[in-house]
From TrEMBL:
Compartments where found: Cytoplasm
Residues involved in Mg(2+) binding: 490, 496
Gene field: pnp
Coiled coil: none
Organism encoding this protein: Pseudobacter ginsenosidimutans
SUPFAM superfamilies attached to this UniProt entry: Eukaryotic type KH-domain (KH-domain type I), Nucleic acid-binding proteins, Polynucleotide phosphorylase/guanosine pentaphosphate synthase (PNPase/GPSI), domain 3, Ribonuclease PH domain 2-like, Ribosomal protein S5 domain 2-like
Job description of the protein: Involved in mRNA degradation. Catalyzes the phosphorolysis of single-stranded polyribonucleotides processively in the 3'- to 5'-direction.
Protein name: Polyribonucleotide nucleotidyltransferase
InterPro entries: ExoRNase_PH_dom1, ExoRNase_PH_dom2, ExoRNase_PH_dom2_sf, KH_dom, KH_dom_type_1, KH_dom_type_1_sf, NA-bd_OB-fold, PNPase
Highest classification ranks of the organism: Bacteria, Pseudomonadati, Bacteroidota, Chitinophagia, Chitinophagales
Swiss-Prot/TrEMBL keywords: Cytoplasm, Magnesium, Metal-binding, Nucleotidyltransferase, RNA-binding, Transferase
EC number of the protein: 2.7.7.8
Residue ranges of every copy of the S1 motif domain listed in the record: 629-698
Length: 718
């Protein structure tokens, strides 16, 4: 018989209850819980090795979030009908959990830890990503794995001016702010989200609301841990500490490390200087020293470099490349740098460079984005590539890793805020290729993407720029906020955060915090400094390209969207698609028709303007309602003894009677008209019983003086 679970329940607001249970499922894992809200159930498990692998020098944490399609009563659409590798959405949720948990493990803990979070039951209205980190933390809380603190995560969205914690899916669709925030009892740890140009103070308010909600969840986890009878955390093997060797390293290299930090050198020059100093340190130890000692000396060297560089920045306000704390590196921007793409831009900031292209496609190019609960198509795609040569390294070229997916998602969410709505028929794909990297290539992607979109003629109303910020703190309450951080400054900082937006407000945020006791006052100061840096970058972007181009490039596909009555959709498509296929074949266009409400949304794409105009006129003719008294350009389709049948609108024919061809009496049709002739006609009547159209050519001719109407002996009804 299965054991009875131990659980706690709490209210996340508005009577929405969340239950966390342990002790029933996955009992051989070192920690396992289920988190439930409504019909959404998440299973989280955690397992850790008892000893680190031999020679392990870093913390090997693996976090995987995955959604079972069965959780929503669906069968995967793949050939094998089973879940495959994590999709981008699952990777992004995995990153959110990883970034929140990783700083909370002891720095000297090197045992393998695997956190698996699985959606086993889906609810159409409950967003599982807001509960995933709660589940992971609760699994760690009821285990003996030595994590330092309990953590949790919530989503805060602003809907119609009101901040809501963990909104339902329907509410989130109407939100103008959407942020996921993770925190411990005292400290914020991670922030990621997007907004429609929100103010900095609005973001701070969202963080404060989130932290209050998180404290309730942390209290519930602590209660669950106590109910489960978790006594404490396991002991683990700690790395060897050689205080004598530490002192030698400091005596030999301490002053020289600080000197290099003050040298205001470039990335490669600085890296070479540190490598040379490290090599000299190892040589100073003597050839007889064992490899383990040399390895430990290298570690102490890196630890000393981390400490001394931070102290130089804090005490002397000197950055590694000589800049002021709030100074942005030199900027260079070009647009239309590639002849064939539909839009392109090259953005360079210091030693970071992005070559970004924009491609315009049809609705047939839309991307299917699937999760267990939803299947949606998106017309806005951004792909971020980070080849190894961008940092001067040699690595195998594989598919995009989690870092590439995460950086691309941040850029996509930021630029999406300024994209035109559903009325814009193009599918837009942005590709950012990072050619050089030394600090925040994701922000370079945002800037280059904005420039490339405007270069492509996308009706992008405002530029979106981004800047990466850093923070260094010390126990004596000294701190330094750094604008436009270098790669080395990212590594040695206590907080790095990326802020994107327009001149009017914030569009995207990604923040990782590794310091205890970060005050909201410091957060406000950092956000204000980020705003000033963003405005500086935006000014340079507007100088490079003040506004979007009025038209797409000559080689880009032309587009026009028509809205027709729903009843005409069948007429445009034709029996078995005959009409629409003929239009596409004759005009060289691509036509997409979608029923939206009481209308048909017709998108016409063509590589040439002539084909576009011809197809649009054809469709307008099909859906046009003939009006008596209107004049049309008609084509003769058939000749009879009593007149000619002409097509005056696509798919609409009428009789041009012999008596209506000319004021002069015609004895026969011979030699008057032939098939294929173009002739202007006037619609003079519609038979309301039969729906037949009566056309006249002579009505457009001057009437001879004294001429009386004649019917050429036409029988009645002809």
């Amino acid at each position: 018989m299965l054991s009875q679970p131990t659980g706690v329940t709490f209210d996340i607001g508005g009577g929405r209850m969340v239950t966390v249970e342990t002790g029933k499922l996955a009992r051989q894992a070192h920690g396992a819980v289920t988190v439930r809200q409504g019909n959404c159930i998440i299973l989280a498990t955690v397992v850790a090795n008892k000893e680190p692998r031999e020679g392990q020098e870093f913390f090997p944490l693996v976090v995987d979030y995955n959604e079972k399609f069965a959780s929503a009563g669906r069968i995967p659409g793949s050939f094998f009908k089973r879940e495959g590798k994590l999709n981008d959405y699952e990777v992004l949720v995995s990153r959110l959990i990883d970034r929140s948990l990783r700083p909370l493990f002891p720095e000297d803990y090197f045992c393998d830890v695997q956190v698996l979070v699985t959606l086993v039951s889906s609810d159409k209205e409950v967003m599982p990503d807001a509960l995933a980190c709660l589940a992971a933390s609760a699994a760690l809380a009821v285990s003996d794995i030595p994590i330092k603190e309990i953590i949790s995560q919530v989503r805060v969205a602003r809907v119609e001016g009101e901040f809501i914690v963990n909104p339902l899916r329907a509410q989130l669709e109407k939100a103008d702010m959407d942020f996921l925030i993770a925190a411990t009892e005292k400290n914020l740890m991670m922030v990621e989200g997007e907004a429609e140009e929100c103010a900095e103070e609005d973001l701070v308010k969202a963080l404060e609301i989130a932290h209050e909600a998180i404290r309730i969840q942390i209290k519930a986890q602590a209660e669950l841990r106590d109910k489960a009878g978790v006594a404490g955390k396991r002991d683990y093997t700690k790395p060897v500490v050689n205080e004598e060797l530490q002192a030698k390293v400091k005596a030999f290299a301490g002053d020289q490390i600080s000197a290099i930090a003050r040298s205001a050198s470039g990335k490669n020059e600085r890296s070479d200087a540190f490598d040379t100093l490290k090599k000299a340190l190892i040589e100073s130890l003597g050839e007889e020293v064992e490899d383990d000692v040399k390895k430990l000396a290298k570690k102490y060297f890196e630890d000393l470099k981390w400490e001394n560089v931070r102290n130089v920045i804090l005490d002397e306000r000197i950055r590694l490349d000589g800049r002021k704390l709030d100074e942005v590196r030199q900027l260079a921007m070009e647009v239309d740098v590639l002849p064939s793409p539909h839009g392109s831009a090259l953005f360079t900031r210091g030693e970071t460079q992005s070559l970004t292209t924009v491609t315009l496609g049809t609705p047939l190019d839309e991307l299917l984005v699937e999760s267990a609960a939803t299947s949606d198509y998106t017309k806005f795609i951004l792909h971020y590539n980070f080849p190894p040569f961008s940092t001067g390294e040699v690595k195998m070229m594989r598919g995009p890793g989690r870092r590439e997916v995460g950086h691309g998602n941040l850029a996509m969410r930021s630029l999406k805020q300024m994209m035109p709505g559903t009325e814009y028929p193009y599918t837009v794909r942005i590709v950012s290729d990072i050619l050089e990297s030394n600090g925040s290539s994701s922000m370079a992607t945002v800037c280059a993407g904005s420039l490339a979109l405007m270069d492509a003629g996308v009706p992008f109303p405002k530029h979106v720029g981004g800047i990466a910020m850093g923070l260094i703190t010390r126990a004596d309450n000294k701190y330094a906020i750094l604008s436009d951080i270098l790669g080395d400054e990212d590594h040695l900082g206590d907080m790095d955060f990326k802020v994107t937006g327009t001149r009017e407000g914030i569009c995207g945020v990604q923040m990782d915090i590794k310091v205890d006791g970060l005050s909201m006052d410091i957060m406000r100061e950092a956000l204000d400094q980020a705003r000033r840096g963003r405005l500086h970058i935006l000014s340079a972007m507007y100088e490079a390209l003040p506004a979007h181009r009025e038209e797409v490039k000559p080689h880009a596909p032309r587009m026009e969207k028509l809205f027709i009555d729903k009843e005409f959709i069948g007429a445009v498509i034709g029996p078995q698609g005959k009409i629409i296929q003929e239009i596409q074949r004759e005009t060289g266009t691509t036509i997409n028709i979608e029923e939206v409400g009481n209308y048909g949304e017709v998108s016409v794409f063509s590589p040439a303007k002539e084909g576009l105009d011809k197809a649009v006129a054809w469709i307008k003719g099909i859906v046009a309602v003939p009006e008596v008294g209107s004049v049309y350009e008609a084509t003769v389709k058939g000749i009879k003894e009593f007149g000619a049948f002409v097509e005056f609108l696509p798919g609409k024919q009428g009789l041009l009677h012999i008596s209506e061809i000319s004021w002069k009496r015609l004895e026969s049709m011979e030699g008057v008209l032939k098939e294929g002739d173009k002739v202007k006609v006037k619609l003079i009547g519609i038979d309301h019983k039969t729906g037949k159209f009566k056309l006249s050519r002579k009505a457009l001719m001057p009437k001879p003086e004294g001429k009386r109407p004649e019917n050429n002996g036409a029988p009645a009804g002809e």
